[in-house]
Specification:
This is Integrase catalytic domain-containing protein. It comes from Clonorchis sinensis. GO terms for molecular function: endonuclease activity; hydrolase activity; nucleic acid binding; RNA-directed DNA polymerase activity. This protein is α/β, with parallel strands linked by helices. It folds into 3 domains: about 5-80, no CATH class; about 90-215, no CATH class; about 240-295, Nucleotidyltransferase, domain 5 (2-Layer Sandwich), CATH 3.30.420.10. It is built from 13 helices and 10 strands. It has helices at about 5-10, 20-25, 40-45, 65-70, 90-100, 110-115, 120-130, 140-145, 170-180, 185-195, 200-210, 215, 275-290, and strands spanning about 10-15, 50-55, 150-155, 155-160, 165, 195, 240-250, 250-260, 265-270, 295. A 4-stranded mixed beta sheet has the order 3-4-5-6. It has a 4-stranded mixed beta sheet with strand order 9-8-7-10, with helices on one face.
């Protein structure tokens, strides 16, 4: 696109690719996914200056263009001009993943071996390397489908951004380490999210903390503050309070109370809608005037 910038700029064109995962990165109306590899993010910023529609076509249908790129054997290109052939995690992300694994009670090789025996993760990796179905799957695969644009495969392991996706047989062991200090759910969740991911992780942590007495003891207690009374108004109809009551005998009522005189106005409501309430209040204000303070329960 840089080579044909003068012809493409300020014109709408169609960008055809034979790599379907790029549709989720550059064709999404939600923008570039947060956990997209750095190289793809740089390309996305460059493409923001163009008006185009990206679509997928198999290699057989664009064989002429594909052949021309392969015929050039000895041509030096800048790193940013390299054609993206796969959605991969860059070396610095791999280093981050390996560093993360050093903090966990499992090794990268153990995760890779367990991933081979996990049917859900194997199916997700298969979809990622080919293409995801158009309809949303069910179960754990559904949550991975919803995050498919941020998934990647590194050395036989599935990653969500820069976090390793744990297979089922290792989750309890890792969860036990995060829970070993009994930090409580409010601290345990962000700690676990910074290292690993698996579908339903939050629900699993909540279940563990709810069944743990020591975690319950460190939970943040709500503030015990005594209710503060409203100040006494200095004149009638300066502050009014409103609430609904009913249904009583199949009728609903709008109750408006003057805080100074404690005088109630009870209005029958045929329906409890915004417009019906506004109509009743306008009629009331035309009689008593507009209050300074209006309190709605």
């Amino acid at each position: 696109m840089k080579k044909f910038h003068k012809m493409l700029y300020d014109r709408h064109f169609t960008l055809v690719t034979d790599h379907k995962p790029l549709l989720a990165v550059f064709g999404s109306k939600k923008g570039i996914p947060v956990y997209t590899a750095n190289r793809l993010q740089r390309w996305g910023i460059i493409l923001l200056g163009y008006n185009f529609t990206i679509r997928y076509a198999s290699t057989e249908k664009i064989g002429q263009a594909d052949a021309l790129t392969r015929l050039i054997a000895s041509r030096e290109m800048e790193p940013e001009d390299t054609v993206i052939a796969t959605v991969a995690v860059e070396p610095e992300v791999r280093a981050v993943v390996l560093e993360t694994m050093n903090q966990l009670p499992v090794t990268f090789d153990a995760v890779r071996d367990a991933t081979k025996n996990d049917s859900i993760l194997q199916k997700a990796m298969e979809y990622h390397q080919s293409s995801w179905p158009t309809t949303c799957p069910s179960g754990e695969l559904r949550k991975l489908f919803q995050r498919r644009s941020s998934l990647s495969v590194v050395n036989g392991c599935l990653l969500f951004g820069d976090r390793i996706v744990l297979p089922t047989e290792l989750r309890q062991r890792v969860l036990a380490q995060f829970h070993s200090g009994h930090p409580g759910i409010s601290f345990m969740k962000p700690l676990a999210r910074s290292y690993v991911y698996w579908p339903g992780m939050d629900e699993h942590m909540e279940q563990v903390c709810r069944s743990c007495f020591r975690c319950a003891a460190v939970q943040k207690l709500p503030n015990r503050q005594l209710p503060q009374p409203w100040p006494q108004p200095e004149k009638p109809w300066s502050r009014i309070h409103m609430d609904f009551a009913g249904p009583i005998n199949e009728q609903s009522f709008l109750i408006v109370l003057d805080a100074f005189s404690k005088w109630p106005e009870v209005l029958i409501m045929s329906e409890k809608t915004t417009m019906a309430t506004i109509t009743k209040l306008r009629h009331l204000f035309s009689t008593f005037g507009i209050p300074e303070t209006f309190v709605r329960q």
